[in-house]
Amino acid sequence: MVEYRIDRHSGVATYVQIVQQTKQALRLGLLEPGDRLPTAREVVEATAINPNTVLKAYRELEREGLVEARRGLGTFVRRSLGAAPVDSPLRAELEEWAARAHDAGLERDDVAALFTAVLEKHFQGDPS
């Protein structure tokens, strides 16, 4: 099951953070079709956010066709995203690269800027 981490200082709306983290879990294969998302109550207890915020995020995911609410049972994953499983060799290479960047003294924002620049170069015009 996914555990949401809310960054209150990020400037990103809380419900958007939940949507983004759910999509990331789907892309990494941490959530698969048939898996149940945490209930709104479970998310509220873990993060101290408003239950309506969780429901708004789940409605957005449902609108995108990624999950479905089953009355009285919960919210379940309908389909996965991407093909980047958590045990991918590419992930291991990226882990090593990130460790080298950290050891070289780069800050998180520096690493993000470098990675974004490389993504833009290699995925220019890619709709994803």
Number of alpha- plus pi-helical segments? 5
Give the strand order, joined by hyphens, for the main sheet.
1-2
Mean pLDDT: 91
Give the strand tally: 2
Silhouette: globular
Major sheet summary line: 2 strands, antiparallel
**Ends distance:** 25 Å
Question: Which class of secondary structure composition applies to the elements?
Answer: mainly alpha
Low-confidence runs (pLDDT<50, min 5 residues)? none
Helix percent reads 40-55%
Q: Give the ordered list of helices and strands.
A: HHHEEHH
Rg, rounded, reads 17 Å
Question: Can you put this structure into words, describing what you see?
Answer:
The chain is built from 5 helices and 2 strands. It has a two-stranded antiparallel sheet. It is globular and about 50 Å long. A hairpin with a 3-residue loop joins β1 and β2. By secondary structure, the chain is mainly alpha-helical. The mean pLDDT is 91.
From the structure above, extract its key features:
5 helices; two-stranded antiparallel sheet; 128 residues; mainly alpha
What's the structural blueprint in terms of helices and strands?
Blueprint: H1 14-27, H2 40-47, H3 51-63, E1 67-70, E2 74-77, H4 89-103, H5 108-122
Antiparallel strand pairs: 1-2
Helix pairs in contact: 1-3, 2-3
Short description:
The chain is mainly alpha-helical and 128 residues long.
